[in-house]
Amino acid sequence: MIGIADPSQAETDLASGTLTCPSCTGPLQPWGHARARTVRDHGTTTVALRPRRARCRTCRGTHVLLPAVVAPRRADTTAVIGSALLASARGAGYRRIAAELARPLSTVRRWIRAVRDPEHVEWLRVQGVLWLARVDRDVIADLAPQPTRLGEALTALAAAAVTLRARVAPHVPPWTLIGQITRGRLVGRPVPARPG
Hints:
By secondary structure, the chain is of the alpha+beta class. It is 45% helix and 14% strand. The strands form 2 sheets. A 4-stranded mixed β-sheet has the order 1-6-5-2, with helices on both faces. A two-stranded antiparallel sheet has the order 3-4. It starts with a strand and ends in a 15-residue tail after the last helix. The relative contact order is 0.14.
């Protein structure tokens, strides 16, 4: 799975051969589509997806280009999950968050529990700081301290998303950029770093 912030740009890059394989860096080419699915957004809105598949011309591996507006294997958009985490970082309980988002208690509780792991929360914070270091190091010094580690992680991710949006992708929503920055693992386990 390759997370993409802008599906139309990814389609252009795929057609021109500039999108590369994460396994071998060979050029990817279009290879049909993955299964269509519908994901819940805020309120009663849904997002219909039919992600593009790509195949590497070099290693012949296939990949799904998943828009970062959604997270892998989740029934809700990154924005909905992020809103729940933000409310939790501000002190709201999972019952209140579930009621406000009109989501099952068990779903919201699972999201909140997923970010209780200190290693994952630190990984989220580091992802935000790394992206800020690439785009605008001066923003890192302006990050305000937060009362919780989750609050610090979300602040770093939000600063990175807002900075990226201002400089690189003005038409991409901030939560989608956060989905891209976290590689779809806002509430999932972090991806191990690749050697090299």
